[in-house]
Each structure stands twice: as C-alpha cells, then as structure tokens.
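The instructor's notes for this session suggest beginning with a concrete chain rather than abstract definitions. Hand out the sequence below and ask the class to guess, before any prediction is shown, which regions might be ordered.
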Amino acid sequence: MTAAAGKGLEGVVASQTSLSFIDGLKGILVYRGYNIHELAPNVSFPESVFLLWNGRLPRRSELDEFEAALAAQRAMDPRTVEGLKGLPAETVPMSALRTGVSLEGVYDPDAEDNSLEANRRKAERLVARTPTIIAAIHRIRQGLEPRAPDPSLSLSADFVRMANGEPGTDEAVDALDRTLLLYLDHGFNASTFACRVIAATLGDMHSAVTGGVGALKGELHGGANARAMHTLLEIGDPENVGPWLDRAFAEKRKIMGFGHRVY
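After discussion, reveal the predicted structure:
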C-alpha cells in the first residue's frame, strides 16, 4: 500500500541542497554553512550571491571583480524597455516582471546555450538586470521615464536611485541590501521548485526564472504579502480585528501571513 502524501507535500523529500538550510521552529537560516545572523550584519548581497555560487566568501579582489561584472551588465536590452512600456496600464508589477525577464531571455546573446559558462553569464545578467527591470516597472506605472543604471553605484544604491529618481539615504540602501541578502535562498520553496522543474527539462535559464516569477506571483506564495496588506487595509482600526476574524472564520477565508509551512 502506498502511503498518502502530506498536505502540500509536507514531509516529501524532492531533492537535497547544500545552498541553504532552514529550521523555522528554531529560527535558523543558514547559507553554505554560515548562520544568517553572522552574514547579515557583516557581508553584502553580492558577497552572499558569490558565496552561494562558489561555496565560499570572496576575497576582496574577487568581490571587486564580481561587483564590477554585475555593474557592467545592469542595463536592460532597449527592446525590453519598449516592451515594458507597451504593457497595459493595469498590469500588476509581478506580471510585468515575469514579462521583463522573459523578454531579456529572448534577446540574451546566450539564449540557447546551456553550457556552464553561458549559464554563468546569464545568471550574472539576471542578477544585475532584475533590479533594473523592477525599477523601470515602478517608474512606468507612475507615468515616468525609466532611469538608466549608474555602474559607479552599488547594486542596492543604484536600484534605489533608479526607482525613486534620486539617490537614497545610507539607511535606505543598507536596508535594501540587507533585505535582498535575507531573501536570497530559502530552500525548495514553490518558486525555487518551479525553476528546478523547468531547468530539469533542459529549458533555458530565463525560462526557468520566468516560471519561478510566475509561481512567486501566486497569492499562496509571494503574493501573500500583498494579500496580507489588503487584509490590514480592510480591517482598518485595531478594534475591528475581532469582528473581522469572526467573519473570516465563518466564511472559511484564508488569513494571509499565518500558517507558513516552513516558518
């Protein structure tokens, strides 16, 4: 007799990874053997990317070279910019991001090359350009012209500048860099698993990441944060929490922000 799988595939081992480890009950998140509480106060987002890709933290010269390589590849293909501008005004940001990543895949010079060397180049371009795409989407939604990247700035500093149209404070840039680091890898969550499935078919990297963005958009995954915000806006005053919860339970509504399978 075959045992039934747990709800949401709970307890099912799909694969193993050495990139990260999570114990949500104990509050543990580890990247390549480093506890996040050691990494977050001491290293940058690009350093953590290097760590995940290479299994070790970079030397100073290696980090300088890596950051320079990312900075040089920050600009989107002009046709991607035009594609984003042509999207309907009501397009939600995650749908626009999915489209932007897909367009970059169409125009990537290594599009159909799945060699290790080509995939490394594509990975660098994706890390470098995804913030540029997001900043452009933010500007376009406000009826503003996207800002071109400035390779003299760090990835986080340039994202804040491109999104807001002016340099960010040190606090804002540091907060963004720390946030990107904390979100970098969380094991086989739904979007990562979607990427892995597509990559396992020997699909190209942009297809895999496009699929991952599509999974992340779902309200039972990354889209839950938007649903949680809508919930807060719907509740309004704290005195409304009790009646709101009573209605939510009676209507068997999902209450976003609670019940994460890992955390």
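Then share the key points. The mean pLDDT is 92. The longest helix spans residues 116-141.
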